[in-house]
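In pairs, describe these two lines:
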Amino acid sequence: MTRPSELHPHVRGPMKRPHVYRHGLRGVLTDDGRFAPGVASILKRGLPTPEPLARWKYTHPQAAEITARAATRGTALHAAIEAWLHGEAADPTHLTAADIAAVEEFATVFGVHDVIGVEEDILVDDGNLLYSGAADHHFIPTTDIQCVTGEIIPAGAVVVGDLKTSKAVYESYHAQLAAYAYALNCDYAVVWHFTPSRVQRHWIDLAAGWRVFQAAYTLAHELPALEARAQQTKVHQPQHALA
């Protein structure tokens, strides 16, 4: 994966901008008024929802409540970790005893590494890609990081990290972290997966993830125009043709 700094030295920059919506995507506007969709919106638009998950959301009577509760827990854990990385007190209001233990475990494992940035806004505008997002943190490990599937992230590398509280480390996470790694000029990426019992470190395949992100990016940008054309055919189709 070509590093953006090798081609475009201003591919990344500070970006506290209000969010806007275009074509069903959430993003921000550049200084010259162009729309930079967010990484999460691009992946949601460009990657289909797995059928079992879609079916569960449609049929489970408590799907909305469960999803909302999981989102609240995830937000609380992110806030607690961010506070710890900033050396501030965390709010335990929405955290269980197991969650607090997980934050402490993360602090113990992560405490030896050198933090470069926390909750960093990104904006990629390299002539081919235009997107925005926010990375949980990126850092330089002072010791090798052993991942649960056997891979090792070496000490001294530049790594982007992301916290996840989902049931699994899904395929879209590889694409998400690849987009962040491209923006932040990182060599590796890791997901800190907060399971009910512990925190696990997961290797992220940046090469495959980058290919998936590029495909999702293309779909997210091309589909709205095609959908608009399809809508026009519905509006202007003669009534007798529908019989």
In short: The first strand starts at residue 20 and ends at 22. The domain at 4-242 is CATH 3.90.320 (Lambda Exonuclease; Chain A). The radius of gyration is 20 Å.
